Amino acid sequence: MSFLFLQTSVGAHPQLEVVIGQWAGPYELDLDSEWATFEIAHAAVLPPPELGEGDPREAQQRVLFGVLPGIRDDEPWVCFNTGSECTAPSNEYGRTYLWEPRDPANVTAVPSPYPTSASQDFFCGGHTFLPNGDLLWVGGTDPDGSCMDVDPDPMVTVCQLGFTGHDYAWRLNATAKRADLAWTNAGAMSLDRWYPTATLLADGRVMVTGHAQNPELPGADLYADFYSAATGWEATPAPNTPYFGSCVNVPEPLPLLDYPRLHLLSRNMLMQTNAAEHVGVIQNRASRFMDFNLNSMPCIGDPRFEEGDFMDTQRVNGGSVHLITFDALIGFTEVVYVVGGGTRELELESICASSLPPEHLATVERMINPEPSAVWLPAASMNRSRNQHNTVVLLDGSIMAVGGQGVDNLGLCKSRKTPERYKPEEVFGSPAPAAWGDLAFQGVDRRYHSVAGLLPDGRVFSAGGVNPSSSDLPDHTVEIYSPPYFFKGPRPAIDSNSLLDPHTSPYPHATAITIEVMVSSTSLGAQIDRVALLRNGSATHAFDMSQRYVELEILFDLPVDEADPLRRELTVLTPQDEAWAPKGFYMLTAVSANHQPSPAQWIRLE
Fold this sequence. Notes:
Elements: H1 14-20, E1 22-28, E2 39-46, E3 62-68, E4 77-80, E5 95-99, E6 107-110, E7 126-129, E8 135-138, E9 142-149, E10 156-164, E11 166-172, E12 183-193, E13 197-200, E14 206-209, E15 212-213, E16 225-228, E17 232-233, E18 262-264, E19 269-272, E20 286-291, E21 305-310, E22 319-327, E23 331-342, E24 360-368, E25 377-379, E26 390-393, E27 399-402, E28 405-407, E29 413-415, E30 420-422, H2 425-428, E31 437-438, E32 448-454, E33 460-466, E34 477-482, E35 493-494, E36 512-518, E37 528-535, E38 538-540, E39 543-544, E40 548-561, E41 564-573, E42 584-592, E43 601-605
Parallel strand pairs: 22-40
Antiparallel strand pairs: 1-34, 2-3, 2-38, 3-5, 4-10, 5-6, 7-8, 8-11, 9-10, 11-12, 12-15, 13-14, 14-16, 16-17, 18-19, 19-20, 20-21, 22-23, 23-24, 24-25, 26-27, 27-30, 28-29, 30-31, 32-33, 33-34, 35-36, 36-41, 37-40, 37-42, 38-39, 40-41, 42-43
């Protein structure tokens, strides 16, 4: 049998790196040279290719970046031939690129499903993974130029770019080898959508909500679209179809606006944390729940929305993460955290100027075992206010806030180049650390439109970002962060030969499976304390639509061979059903009692 150990040099300051970790980069990405002002605003961590390519471990680490061209809504362009439609230049549409951290400065272009049309732009769409590993991308930007004649020359028209959404959708064969990655048309939604959220449900469908546009359908934001990998889009909304506002126990319709933060709960309920993107008007600070168990409710998809407890404040552009943990004494605990954000409707486009008061938030809240009767509880605040940041769950179950911006006590806008990390007591036990800890200083500003995510080996990538209130060009680089667990000594390692091939042999839910793990020593602190699944992320605009942390119950922990106590055979129970962990690919990690996680191995749930 073969075991994988991650060899890492602790560098010049090992004592410091054990506490704050270490950044590598920034690496200038080698994208198409004509894109001088592109923005990297979307990222998805792809499952491994079916046949593998390159080094076996490194081949598991692949990220798809979605890139926006450099037209902004404050940049007019001039069209000649008065009377003709004024449109964006033909090459100004989003593209996607494959990035592999083993070669961090290089990317591979993934052919777009459309040749030149700006009306089918990927940018500002939503995306999540289907049960078979494909990436579904929905909606996006349809540039809409508003024009006026310029006097005295009647042959010149000046256009100002505006944005609307569209109904296009695409699928990427995300488990294909590098050269075979390709987008295919996934049909059209019933509504145009800009800034939508795509959520994989327990039944394998994807529910698309948020920022729907249709002049012939009042209240379009109250409707959802549903996609099935087998049958495509459902024919909704249809005439006289009930929508969310007509559901039982909802006193008034509350639309799902820009990038609603949605989490599928183990109770087969959908939770909205209301830490959404710049939503314009925030009706209240209540969380909301959609119950898919109420099959008699006359609502689209048979759900209902109910108002839950109120958060302490509005959280525009805040982080939102979801954990399911296990303790031998109390069983499973589910918790949703909201992290930072802004308190004002003026936090549109991540405005951050010296004239604004310090209303960016450092506060954090959590809801334990979320349901309509549950309450929001205060958690430890971050060390600094943060808005438009990315919130990443690490392999050990800790939460990392990276990038964004905030306003200091003098009212000055500051880039947040010092990430922070929190160890939830639901994962690390009680008493938990009472504070967030500062991590290694980041080299590049990562503000609006930046992305971040967890790699299978436990590192974190952080890329892109732009400050729309300045004339600075968007950033074209990526940095890679190694958390403190890379520098605390040997990590456990899962034997990949003890796992089924995720492409051909998925694991059923509620099934005992046995894996072999090499621990670093026979000491109590090096023994395996927990095993967890983390869903590969799909992030944009400060929200990850796929991220999920699910701890597994350990049934048995036995030595493989009495003569070799370092080799352990663990029997764990896969998640109870698809509401706990929807079908699809996951990263599996084993964590020692001293909180050292193994590099993850890919598995698939069916």
